[in-house]
Amino acid sequence: MRLILLALSLLLALPASAATPELLASLDALHARRSEEAAIKEQEETLKKELQAAPEDYELLWRQARLLVWQADGASDARQKKVLGKQAWDVCERGVKLAPQRVECQYFAAGGIGTYSQAVGIMKALKDGLEGKFNERLDAAIKIDPTFDMGAPWLAKGRYHYELPWPKRDLGESAKLYEKALAKFPNNLRANYYLAETLLADDEAKKAREAILKVKQGNVAYDPPEGRRVQEWAKKVEADIEEELK
């Protein structure tokens, strides 16, 4: 009886969603095709329309942030990355207020802060106090569910340890987190890509080559847009590794 009451209390604590299951399924299907310009445009238009009608709908908010983080992650222009990252961060701050116990907006808020920090420069981000805000959201996501989106919170924390300047940088901890994700999700190409970069930076070029080959030869079926993006990025890292091994 106590377990039943606990389950009921958790359900009652979830924010009500005006979005229908069919709408959410449609948005998720569009997200699975996010490498297509038409799918991105339709997702943007649908989210804009639905959020105008229901601006505090958690299910819509985190899906909007998911799209913004994807776009920021792939942006080559620093100004665009900064704008998209800030938008994702702002959207998910609203979501965290609605449902702090849910992993999605904790994680995508951290993703927005992370891409914003990359755009403005890590040293400026540290000076502006963004490290604490990033870790607050990311650590909450890890506590709630580190396996979300194939271990994405672990990967973000590993990348944090990789991107920090000396003496804060911790390549050993970075690699441990990627390996933790890979132990549960061995097909995660981004985990191997990040691991390869970390190993290369840690003077482990031979091990880095093993990791990048897993990206190059990996199956993208688990998430084709993500897999293809990472495989494209991996080409430069592979070249850097081969140069180091000469």
Structure characteristics:
246 residues, mainly alpha, Serine Threonine Protein Phosphatase 5, Tetratricopeptide repeat, TPR-like_helical_dom_sf, Tetratricopeptide repeat protein, signal
How are the SSEs ordered, and which strands pair?
Elements: H1 2-13, H2 21-31, H3 37-53, H4 58-74, H5 78-98, H6 103-120, H7 122-127, H8 130-144, H9 148-163, H10 171-184, H11 189-201, H12 205-216, H13 224-245
Helix pairs in contact: 2-4, 3-4, 4-5, 4-6, 5-6, 6-8, 6-9, 8-9, 9-10, 9-11, 10-11, 11-12, 11-13, 12-13
Overall description:
The protein is built from 13 helices and no strands. Helix content is 79%, strand content 0%. It is mostly helical and 246 residues long. Residues 5-12 have low confidence and may be disordered. It has helices spanning 2-13, 21-31, 37-53, 58-74, 78-98, 103-120, 122-127, 130-144, 148-163, 171-184, 189-201, 205-216, 224-245. The chain has 2 domains: 39-145, Alpha Horseshoe (Serine Threonine Protein Phosphatase 5, Tetratricopeptide repeat); 146-246, Serine Threonine Protein Phosphatase 5, Tetratricopeptide repeat (Alpha Horseshoe), CATH 1.25.40.10.
